[in-house]
Amino acid sequence: MILYGLLILAYAFLYVPIVVMIVFSFNASRLVTVWGGFSTKWYGELLHDEKVLDAAWLSLKVAMTSATVSTVLGTLAAVVLVRFTRFFGRTLFTGMVTAPLVMPEVITGLALLLLFVAMEAVVGWPSGRSFTTIVIAHTTFSLSFVTVVVRSRLSQMDASLEEAAMDLGARPLKVFLAITLPLIAPALLAGWLLAFTLSIDDVVISAFVSGPGATPLPIVIFSKVRLGVSPEINALATLVVTVVAVAMAIAGRVALKREQPRPQ
Amino acid sequence: MASQTTAAPWNDPGAKPLIRFEGVSKRFGDFVAVDQVDLAIHKGEFFSLLGASGCGKTTLLRMLAGFETPTEGRIFIDGVDMSAVPPYERPVNMMFQSYALFPHMTVEANIAFGLKQDRLPQPVITDRTKAVLDLVQMGKFATRKPHQLSGGQRQRVALARALAKEPKVLLLDEPLGALDKKLREATQLELVNIQDRVGVTFVMVTHDQEEAMTMSSRIGVMNSGRIAQVGTPVDIYEYPESRFVADFIGAANMFEASVRQSGTDQVVVNCPELAHDLIIAHNDMLPEGTPVTVMVRPEKVAISRDKPAEGLNWAQGVVADIAYLGDVSIFHVRLESGHRIEALQTNLRHTDERKLTWEDPVYLSWHPANALVLTK
Ligand SMILES: Nc1ncnc2c1ncn2[C@@H]1O[C@H](COP(=O)(O)OP(=O)(O)OP(=O)(O)O)[C@@H](O)[C@H]1O
Ligand SMILES: [Mg+2]
Fold first, then answer.
1. Of A25, A174, B28, B356, whose CB has the highest number of CB atoms within 10 Å?
2. Pfam families given for it (chain B) (predicted)?
3. Is domain B251-374 annotated with CATH 3.40.50.11190?
4. What is the pTM of this model?
């Protein structure tokens, strides 16, 4: 019973703020702390806010692009790390691919900004902070997550399946496409969704690499909040929470499905 | 049970072997997994690699399949040097110990996979798939996924898949390892029958000596990366060339001895464990004093209460232990010196009034032709 109480307490910690925010997004009153009856007018108002809509669209594009790019690159990295066990510097590379997971975001963001500025000065690309710089930055940190997810799936996979395919006459590329890829597909989907959610709610790194022309949604929310919390922001945040929750739910389901033991 | 239709090409010096290992070694770092192996396997053989766990059997097989590259030496299949030939171009197929069936494909698709890689026309693929499935009696399960099959059924599918491409050589890594004893024995028979029918050369890895004995035309006994002896099951059992092989295959009584007198067809050895000299049939002259090991199999040792006839080797002792196994009993007889000898007796009668029991004094005897002198 006590355990149960503790559990509820912990979950309250996690979810009460979000619930409060969601509830107040339906508040008719402009005053955040006063309940003025149920209304969806803030959602309506959001739809007319060009700036918010642009930001949301940009965030979506960035999230989809960076998730896709990091899934492709992360999968390749994972395949090399797991399947090619004997090459120079393997241990170093294994460590290096996971390091960004624990790297403070501020540092990653700052480093990327410096890189972009330097590159612009030297090769003239990328010009300014734009969609491109945000995608590159988001890919950089999502990549590690995807690699870790795919790598664990790959190392669980029986390597003799690939050998069997090769033994039956399939060339390495064919083996990868016909055997490896279908078997690690759940991990690819999970990795993609993870990358997507990481990108869509990123503030810190985006703050460094976004600019006036290209501001993703979390940054817009952040700057609006500095002017005071409004029910409109609550509505916007609620929408973001919904999108992230749905993505996480799908990722969770996929992950669960692959862990279910095969009936013997 | 092993295929008797083939003659013995390995005895014909002019015969060209299908597979030839020439001084093949494999090292993993400093560890030598396979050490200077020379081996010739002929067309149509059922060849088994037998040895204790970790002696390099799988490594040898994987080098033949192309999954490992020899550190030294060369492998030839049908006269072609395989050094530069990748696994997907070798005329061999492997049946994996874990079966390695593709979980996302049906039984049919698993079998058709290899045929598709050869870009055969679809009707041919369909026909061949069906033919091999029928061969292993799995026609009914064509549309199932591997996880919907029992262990024995999966094993059949794995075999069918490896046979579908009609390879020159089929490699089997402990193909029956995952089956229970009964199924295992039935499958051993069946595997030999299938091999007879398709005429493909089989190279099988096993650490089960009974399995190797029943199924093989020849056996290669391995010991820490080396081939200790190659021969037919009878050769290996009756005429082991070394202490290791004698001890590894079947049960063996061994005595340390030294040569006292050597003739053209027999030697007389002195054995400190026994009260008197032994006479053993042996063709090579051995210098006096050569340390040797005398080996005699338990079933070649007769046990009796009465003194054995002249001309036999004999020893005297008391029954220390009796292991009753139903069809046979194994008597452990303790000699005066403390040395133990095993004698195996078939239980011919239901009850025996003169049945031997613990601490009975007995004579053990064996014919000079039924013992062996080992110098290695
Ligand atoms: N990739 C590898 N790296 C390092 N050592 C290896 C590798 N593969 C095999 N070995 C070592 O080589 C030796 C022989 O292995 P192998 O798998 O050939 O044994 P085996 O005779 O098939 O044994 P088992 O009957 O247990 O299957 C073992 O000691 C093993 O540890
Ligand atoms: Mg093995």
1. A25
2. ABC_tran, TOBE_2
3. no
4. 0.81
